[in-house]
Amino acid sequence: MRHFLSLKDFSKEEIHALITHAAELKKNPQKLLPDKTLAMIFEKSSTRTRMAFELAITELGGKALFLSANDLQLHRGELIKDTARVIGAMVDFVMLRVKSHEDLVEFAKYSKAPVINALSDLCHPTQVLGDLLTIQEWNKQGKIAFIGDSNNMCNSWLVTAAILGYEISIALPKNYEINPEILSFARDKALKSGAKISITHNKFEAIENKDVVITDTWISMGQEEDKDRKIKDFEGFMIDKEAMSVANEGAILLHCLPAYRGYEVSEELFEAHSEVIFTEARNRLYVVKALLCFLNQTKG
Description:
Elements: H1 12-27, E1 37-42, H2 48-59, E2 63-68, H3 80-90, E3 93-97, H4 101-110, E4 115-117, H5 125-137, E5 143-147, H6 152-164, E6 167-171, H7 180-193, E7 196-200, H8 203-207, E8 212-215, H9 227-233, H10 241-244, E9 252-255, H11 267-272, H12 274-298
Parallel strand pairs: 1-2, 1-3, 3-4, 5-6, 5-8, 6-7, 8-9
Helix pairs in contact: 1-5, 1-12, 2-12, 3-4, 5-12, 6-7
């Protein structure tokens, strides 16, 4: 049985297979998981993630159960491993949107059902799958720039680029550092895949000659008290028309949303790339469908 906690655990071939199946399901919807059940546990609020997972299992012929962490006994102190033993024995899949990646790992250790990371503080792998499907649909090459925080999206894209052999440049403020374990993994993978990794503090340097430019909100959920400091730290990192002009002709902008215009991206540039950004959001549905089918097959 496989879990989906991070793309670190998946091969290049498996990632490509997921995207290929997602594209097929987008064109030809099928009820491939009749009567299967998906438990959805949320510690953090959600728009796109909840919609994608609930619609995915429903359109595949199954049923979703929304479980707010505040309504579970977890909120009253029940151990994660006990909750995992109960929920994981009753359903076919469990997805969790959590504050701590360690809690996700602990849950998966005791669950009898495949566990999916629908966002943690360490990574956001289903979002990257949606990005990959979008990049494929826009026929872009593997030259990526990520501009923003050293957060879960940065980690996920670094890992993915390293596995797939992409060229990725990351621009961060000077006092921000990438998770050492993630960076070490990516550099080791790059030696085998041929990926090119560069880290800079200059957004123009990162964006130059890239086909895909990716950003994310500077103030992640749970970090609202750091808003003023983050805005100061990221001064000069907003992606605007001038910054995008050094990318390759026809380059696309991706944003996992929600977007805060005037901070990580200008209003003008966001609206210019709104079609691809909202396709990216909708593509979460199809990659989740493919992921559920893949995990169902690994259950044996």
